[in-house]
Each structure stands twice: as C-alpha cells, then as structure tokens.
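Q: Hi! First time doing this. I have a protein sequence and I read that you can turn it into a structure. Is that right? Here it is:
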Amino acid sequence: MKIPKGMTEQEVTETINKICDRYAYKFQFAFYTPEDIRQEAFIIAMEALDRYDEGRPLENFLAVHVKNRLNNFKRDKYYRQNAKDDSNNNTKRFLMEPLDIDNIRDEFENNMRETDDFIKIIEDNELFTLIDESLDVSFRSDYLRIRHGVYVAKPRREAIYREIRNILKENGYEEG
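A: Yes, that's right. Below is the predicted 3D structure, encoded as structure tokens:
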C-alpha cells in the first residue's frame, strides 16, 4: 500500500473505510450484500492508491475512483431478468437462479425423443466403428457427447447427423 506523503497509514485506512461505508448500501444488488460491496470497494481503493496524484485530496480521488469502479462492477455482474439474447446474462442467470434438475432432464428427454429413431440406426457396433473411423475430427467431441447421452445444441446435432447420414450412404447403409 502506497501511503501518501503527510498521512499515516491509519489516516489512509480511515479515509478508505469512510468511502467504503458511503457506497456499500448504494451499490448493493442481487445477491451482493452491503458487506460484499464494502469489501469490493476496499480492494478497489487499495489498488487505486498506486495511481494517486498527491496534488489532489485523497478522499475526492478515492470517492470518484471507487464510485466509477463500482458502477463497472455492478454493470458487469448485474443480471437483467427479461433480457433474451444475451449470453453473458444467461451465464449470470445460471449463477443466480439454480436450475431445477427435473426441468433440465425433461428438456433433455424432449430434445432427444426427436433423434431416437436416428440413434437406433447406428446402435450396431459395426456401424459405430465405421462412423468412428470416418467422422471428421471437427465433429468428434460432439458426436461422443451424443453417444453418451450428453445434450448437444440442435444446430450442431443436426450437422453431425447429416455427416453420419453421408457416411452411411457412402458405405451402402440405408436409413430405415
């Protein structure tokens, strides 16, 4: 911690604590409590001391710096409940709202029902060997996920199925 000239460590700590207490309740949101925000603000203020220009009052410098960084923190961590096409928002939603395992299983089973007929075609070990040897490397990891019952997004799954169908057609197998 860089201590500004003419100040003691205790005075700097008191100033930082004053700033942290000021913003702890103003910036609380979601699952971040005032104590969490206070700790974030304290860390931000301690890091800012290295950039402090001693020609300005320390409290003003820290207040502006901490407020701006807390605004960034809140913006980056905030989850908007009704946002649709925001992958960052979905990641935050999954962290903040635990998913019900039954819903996940039901969704997975519904998605897999569409492909059950196709999967039955390639259940024969001979076909698995043929597909394993012929499938392009770019499809390999998702193909193995499908084989082991792990969910793969529909567009990617369909691309893999097309590739497998082509392999089967090239080797004289007909879809049944």
